User: Fold this.
Amino acid sequence: MYNFHQVVEMLNEAEENLVEEHQQCIMENKEYLKQEEAILSRVEQDVDYDIEDYAKALDVILQRKIDRLKTMQEKLSKFRSQLHKEEEISKTLRRPVKKR
Assistant:
């Protein structure tokens, strides 16, 4: 079983990983938005644009976004579970009593 300090250290590392993951997710979303704008622009400006190509490209982008968000949500859920465990452990520890 882990001691309190190990749990806190693990939680701090998990927090850093979550923040980094969130930052990466935001960067990827920006790229997906650029891709969406590009395919939308092509379909709006080109009368002869193949709507099936548009639908396929949009489907690929949306599926990537969904998969990425699911991964992010899973990591967030794991982090929150670790946070809850840390809180439970900290409740069980006795606090030293200060002498006057």
User: Anything to note?
Assistant: The chain is about 85% helix and 0% strand. The helical segments are 4-45, 51-92. The CA atoms of residues 15 and 79 lie 7 Å apart.
